[in-house]
Amino acid sequence: MTPIYEGKAKRLWATENPETLRMEFKNDATAFNGEKKASFENKGRLNNEISTLIYGFLENAGVPTHFVRKIDDTNVEVKKVTIVMVEVIVRNLSAGSYCKRTGIAEGQVFSQPIIEFSYKSDELGDPLINDDYIREMGLATPEDLVHLRKSALQVNAILTDFFAKCGLKLVDFKLEFGRLVSDPSQIVLADEISPDGCRLWDLKTGEKMDKDRFRRDLGNVMEAYAEVLGRLKANS
Ligand code: TMP
Ligand code: ASP
Questions:
Q1: Residues with CB under 6 A from ligand 2
Q2: Which is the closest atom of ligand 1 to the Cα of 96?
Q3: Mean pLDDT for all residues in the chain
Q4: Nearby residues of 133 by Cβ (< 8 Å), 6 or more positions away
Q5: What's the gap between Cα 42 and its chain centre?
Q6: Nearest CA to ligand 2 atom 8
C-alpha cells in the first residue's frame, strides 16, 4: 500500500469509507521548511494523543473539524477534505517570524490577537500573504476569509483558556482548514494541533514546551511534548 499523500510529519491513507482517510503521525520532525530534519521516538504517538485530545475538546465546544476517531497510537480517522491552501496563524505574544520581521523582542503581549495568512507552498517557503493575494490567487473567497478569521479567533479563545488551566501560555499557533469533500460548502478545521504547530510556554518558568526546543537545539524535545500531554490529560 502507498499513502495517498505524504507530508513532513504525517501520511494520509485511504480507508474503506470513501468519505474518510486515515491520518498517520510520523516520528519525523522538520524545521526551517524542511532544511533541518530529525526523528524522535514516540513523537507520532505523543502528537496523536495531544491532537486527539484537543480536537475532541474543540468539537465539544462546537468547532466543526475533520476529526472522526482515534484508530490507534499513531493513527486517526478524519473526514476527507480539500485543504484550503492558506495557513492561518494566530499570535498572542511576539515570537518566531514576527520578531524576525519586526525586530521586536520575543514575549511582547499583543493588545489583540494578530491573525496572519501564509500561502501553503513548500516550494515557496510558505510566504506571508494578505486578503487581496488570497482573493486574486483564488485560494479562498472574501466570505471564506471572514469564516477563517472568526473560527481562528474562536479556537484561540478556547485553547488559550484550556492551556492556561494546564499552566501553559499559548503564544501562537498555525491552523489549516479544509472543505468537506461530501459538502464543499462546509469549511472545517483540519490537520493537527500539537506542539509542532503551536508555541507553548510554561506559565511559571517561561520554559519553551514546543517544537522551538528542536528548532533551537534546546534539548529534551520529547520530554516537553510528554509534559504537555500529561498536563492536558490531567485537566480534561
Ligand atoms: P512562525 O513564528 O515561525 O511564523 O510560526 C508561527 C506559528 O506557526 C508557530 O506556532 C509555529 C507554527 N508553524 C507551523 O506550524 N508550520 C510552519 O511551517 C511554520 C513556519 C510555523
Ligand atoms: N514545519 C516547517 C518545516 O518543516 C517549519 C517549522 O515548523 O519550523 O520545515
A1: 8, 30-34, 211, 215
A2: 2
A3: 98
A4: 117, 119, 139
A5: 18
A6: 31
Domains defined for the chain, CATH in brackets: 3-80 (3.30.200.20), 82-220 (3.30.470.20)
Residue 1 has pLDDT above 90, yes or no: no
Contact, 152 vs 88, CB < 8 A?
Answer: yes
DSSP 153-188: HHHHHHHHHHHHHTTEEEEEEEEEEEEETTEEEEEE
- Mode of pairing for the β-strands spanning 128-129 and 168-180: unpaired
| Nearest atom (ligand 1) to Cα of 174 | 8
pTM of the model: 0.97
pLDDT tens per residue across span 135-194:
999 999 999 999 999 999 999 999 999 999 999 999 999 999 999 999 999 999 999 999
| From 54, 172, 198, 210, mutation site for ligand 1 pocket: most ligand atoms within 8 A of C-beta | 172
